[in-house]
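Field reference: "sequence" (input) and "structure" (output). Example, Glyoxalase:
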Amino acid sequence: MSAPTETKSKTGEACWFEIPSTDLDRSQKFYEAVLGIKMMKTEKSDDQPNDVVWFKSFDSEGVFGHIYPGKPAKEGEGNTIHLTSEDKLEDVMPRVETAGGKVVSPVIPIPAGRFVYITDPDGNSIGLFNVN
């Protein structure tokens, strides 16, 4: 199975994200445990330069993203990726710590919903978001 080949994004809209990891299997287990999802791993091929772990299936719509073998940014220097959580943040936060990450902020309310900052086992900055 290969990566999606088309997107319906318009100029300036987010369409893709990548999260670097020093250990794909550990990262897959972390995100599956925290988000309560099943991720899909695909292996290096002619049209994919390395193994990656996908956040959703190729037949779904919206923004695609994956975990790839790479060096995470130093603390405080990288981007923050925000991922939607369908579970209440208060239920997700303990799973972060149990799975090897850290909760680094309280729940922050904004007009569009609520979010919390965490770091994954590699130290990547992640926001978990509940939409209103």
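Residues 16-131 form a domain with the 2,3-Dihydroxybiphenyl 1,2-Dioxygenase; domain 1 fold (CATH 3.10.180.10).
The chain has one domain: 16-131.
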